Amino acid sequence: MEAVESELLKKAAREAAKASYSPYSHYPVGAAVLAEDGQIFSACNVESSTYGLSICAERNALTAAIAKGLRKFRALAVWSKNGATPCGACRQVIWELCGEIPIYIIDADGKEKCYISSVLLPDPFDEKKLRK
Ligand code: THU
After folding, report:
1. Is residue 27 within 6 Å of ligand 1 at its C-beta?
2. Residue 24 alpha carbon, nearest atom of ligand 1
3. Tens digits of per-residue pLDDT, 39-69?
4. Is the CB of 92 under 6 A from ligand 1?
């Protein structure tokens, strides 16, 4: 992936966090996913007073892209003030929808880490493999 693309992706994740609806945790998160064709889809976390119904930024970004017909993704970026890594539920969904991609984790100081999907979720449940 070109450096300019990853920079745009990280910027989109940071911008997306500004729309965060997080009145319960007060923990804004933004995520952005880069589709195969170069389009970027971004989203924030959206919380519910029934806390368990809250949806993470990562899954919101991915479902926004899927809803527009995109099916192949090249990278994901996640922004939070202290560089939180994706939760377990998001790791599973990232694996299923994206496969092995780089996942950039960025914090408010601009520090970044990058993991590939299988490092965040080793030996995942994979329905496609079970069908073989
Ligand atoms: N959250 C995300 O959006 N993504 C993550 O990777 C970790 C957690 C959200 C869920 C909730 O709205 C808030 O952060 C605090 O857990």
Report:
1. yes
2. 12
3. 999 999 999 999 999 999 999 999 999 999 9
4. no
Q: What is the pLDDT of residue 127?
A: 85
Q: What fold is seen in the domain 3-130?
A: Cytidine Deaminase; domain 2 (3.40.140)
How close is the Cα of 96 to the center of ligand 1, in Å? 19
Residue 54 neighbours by CB under 8 Å, 6+ apart? 24, 25, 45, 46, 47, 48
Helices 57-67 and 88-98, axial angle in degrees (round to 10)? 30
DSSP for residue 46: B
Per-residue pLDDT tens for 66-123? Answer: 999 999 999 999 999 999 999 999 999 999 999 999 999 999 999 999 999 999 999 9
The residues carrying an active-site annotation are 58
Q: Is 90 in the pocket of ligand 1 (CB under 6 A)?
A: yes
What is the 3 state secondary structure string of 5-18?
Answer: HHHHHHHHHHHHHH
